[in-house]
């Protein structure tokens, strides 16, 4: 992390952070204000939130979601926007406990209502058990894939059940650059049209997700959380090192180290490509999953498909909002 001790900030105070892609030196106070300004600008420019919104913050306890909760709490304090936080407990022993504790303390500090939902309650099994089933049955999916599919569904269903109008996630610039490169490597160009700070269009049954921190680099989020005095989540998910995203992360970090500003260029370039693709790609009609009744562009939604592959009886799972 590029901390500085001697150069001066533009305000005349001692420098703390060097933005290598711009050459800008910031003191602690100006750095904090800058991160918050980027988030506020993103919210206003893309019209992510309104005073009438009830926003569910996806709070994992990691630095990104902690920064998101703090920034939204500060920004929306002047408005009537209602905030509450949800932490998903996937059931990873030795990993999730720390995140749950951090999330609880952060929510208490910010005065935000906090709730916990679990894979065990939603799907009848923890993520550890689900991954074990996958290995036993020879299902060629990684733990991150299981988690991503089931976690997204659980967040959406919980948001509907609790009357949220938006789901705010802590995706940062690094996350977005990685996702863009992953989609290109997989040849999934159509997904580039759906990237951005918010969905292209609203769909019944899906609560819109917004990303106020999309243009803030991961390093800056870590520094922001540090300056705000929040604890940093020290444990690493046991499944992360096996994922393609982890390899892409290393590639991008190496390139960024030699060529500062690469991640910004990737995201901004993808934004321009997305604007062009939106005019040519028609969104598929969304129907209902024949098994659970949730909105889906397929006859059987991805969640039910995965549970079926694992031999898990998902007949007890109903769309929570209905």
Write up what this structure looks like.
The structure is a single chain. With 322 residues, this protein is of the alpha/beta class. It has a single domain (32-286), classed as Rossmann fold. 45% of the residues lie in helices and 11% in strands. The protein is built from 11 helices and 9 strands. It has helices at 28-45, 63-75, 96-110, 119-123, 127-137, 143-161, 173-185, 218-227, 244-258, 262-278, 302-310; strands spanning 17-19, 24-26, 54-58, 82-89, 113-118, 166-168, 209-210, 287-288, 295-296. Strands 5-4-3-6-7 form a 5-stranded parallel β-sheet, sandwiched between helices. The chain has a two-stranded antiparallel ribbon with strand order 1-2. The protein has a two-stranded antiparallel sheet with strand order 8-9. The chain is globular, with a radius of gyration of 20 Å. The mean pLDDT is 88.
Structural class: alpha/beta
Fraction of residues in H or I helices: 40-55%
CATH class, anyone? Alpha Beta
**Cα distance, first to last residue?**
47 Å
The strand line-up of the biggest sheet is 5-4-3-6-7
CA radius of gyration is 20 Å
Please summarize what this structure is.
With 322 residues, this protein is of the alpha/beta class.
Chart the SSEs and their pairings:
Layout: E1 17-19, E2 24-26, H1 28-45, E3 54-58, H2 63-75, E4 82-89, H3 96-110, E5 113-118, H4 119-123, H5 127-137, H6 143-161, E6 166-168, H7 173-185, E7 209-210, H8 218-227, H9 244-258, H10 262-278, E8 287-288, E9 295-296, H11 302-310
Parallel strand pairs: 3-4, 3-6, 4-5, 6-7
Antiparallel strand pairs: 1-2, 8-9
């Amino acid at each position: 992390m590029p901390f500085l001790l001697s150069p001066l900030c533009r305000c005349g105070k001692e420098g703390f952070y060097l933005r290598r892609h711009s050459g800008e030196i910031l003191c602690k106070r100006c750095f904090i204000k800058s991160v918050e300004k980027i988030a506020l600008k993103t919210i206003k420019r893309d019209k992510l939130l309104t005073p009438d919104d009830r926003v569910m913050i996806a709070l994992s306890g990691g630095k990104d979601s902690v920064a998101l909760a703090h920034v939204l709490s500060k920004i929306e304090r002047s408005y009537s926007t209602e905030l509450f936080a949800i932490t998903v407990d996937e059931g990873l022993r030795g990993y999730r406990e720390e995140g749950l504790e951090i999330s609880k303390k952060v929510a208490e500090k910010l005065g935000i209502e906090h709730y916990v939902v679990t894979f065990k309650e939603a799907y009848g099994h923890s993520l550890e058990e689900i991954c074990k089933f996958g290995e036993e049955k020879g299902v060629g999916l990684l733990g991150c894939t299981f988690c991503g599919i089931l976690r997204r569904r659980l967040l959406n269903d919980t948001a509907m059940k609790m009357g949220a109008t938006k789901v705010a996630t802590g995706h940062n610039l690094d996350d977005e650059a990685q996702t863009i490169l992953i989609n290109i490597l997989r040849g999934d160009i159509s997904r580039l049209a759906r990237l951005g700070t918010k969905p292209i269009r609203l769909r019944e049954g899906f609560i819109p997700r917004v990303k106020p921190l999309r243009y803030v680099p991961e390093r800056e989020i870590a520094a922001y959380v540090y300056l705000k005095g929040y604890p940093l989540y020290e444990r690493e998910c046991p499944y992360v090192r096996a994922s393609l995203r982890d390899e892409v992360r290393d590639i991008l970090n190496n390139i960024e180290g030699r060529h500062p500003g690469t991640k910004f260029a990737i995201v901004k370039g993808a934004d321009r490509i997305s604007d062009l693709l939106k005019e040519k790609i028609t969104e598929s009609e969304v129907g209902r999953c024949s098994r659970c009744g949730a909105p889906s562009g397929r006859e059987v939604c991805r969640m039910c498909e995965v549970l079926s592959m694992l031999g898990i009886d998902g007949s007890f799972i109903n769309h929570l909002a209905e």
